[in-house]
Design a protein that fits this description.
With 198 residues, the protein is mainly α. Helices cover 81% and strands 0% of the residues. The chain has one domain (2-197). It contains eight helices and no strands.
Length: 198
């Protein structure tokens, strides 16, 4: 059954990321380059930690999602700098500095804890961008991420901080993105309709 959960989670990673890549290519969405750069690095760290700590087949969704994260980062370089603010550079610096202790500690669990902290810091620029410009994101990717990480938790061969922490944090942050992209867009649409009626 764990194998089934892992495969379904990997399929969700594909199903959620392909539309996002298409939207990035057509400039419908504007991925924040700082966030996706750090996520690319963190994905590699988390994948390594999961494998070392015995995640087994449960690491498959992380590997698939990590490949797509790298592709989206490459798109973000070309399309995503319009919404970069000065404050975002501080979060990028903090996230990248967090890699230093990861290199120092020869411990998979500590590495994953640091990686997740870096991940959350890197999420801030995207959360800020989405709050003020919800039209630059789509809830499809983040909604599928929530389901993927839930299934990933069920597919793990071993349960410990190294194998579960990343998915738990991603369930919370991606749920926040779903709320932001849907509620803010609905608010903007309602405001436009009211303006039109007047």
């Amino acid at each position: 059954m764990k194998n089934v959960f892992a495969v379904i989670a990997a399929i969700l990673a594909i199903a959620g990321n392909l539309p996002y890549i298409r939207d990035a290519f057509t400039k419908r969405v504007k991925p924040h380059p700082f966030t996706w750069l750090v996520w690319t690095i963190v994905s590699a760290i988390v994948l390594f930690g999961q494998i070392v700590e015995g995640a087994g087949i449960g690491a498959l969704p992380t590997a698939v999602a990590g490949a797509f994260t790298t592709i989206i980062f490459l798109f973000s370089i070309q399309y995503g700098f319009k919404y970069v603010k000065k404050s975002d550079k501080y979060f990028l610096a903090a996230a990248l500095l967090g890699i230093i202790p990861w290199l120092i500690f020869d411990n998979a669990t500590v590495s994953v804890i640091i990686a997740v902290a870096i991940d959350l810091i890197a999420f801030v620029p995207t959360l800020r961008k989405t709050y003020f410009h919800p039209e630059t994101e789509t809830p499809i990717l983040y909604g599928s991420n929530v389901l993927r990480h839930i299934l990933t938790l069920f597919s793990l061969q071993a349960y410990n901080i190294a194998t579960t922490l990343h998915s738990i944090s991603m369930i919370i942050t991606n749920s926040t993105m779903v709320v932001l992209t849907t509620s803010k867009k609905a608010h903007i649409k309602a405001h436009k309709n009211n303006t039109t009626l007047k």
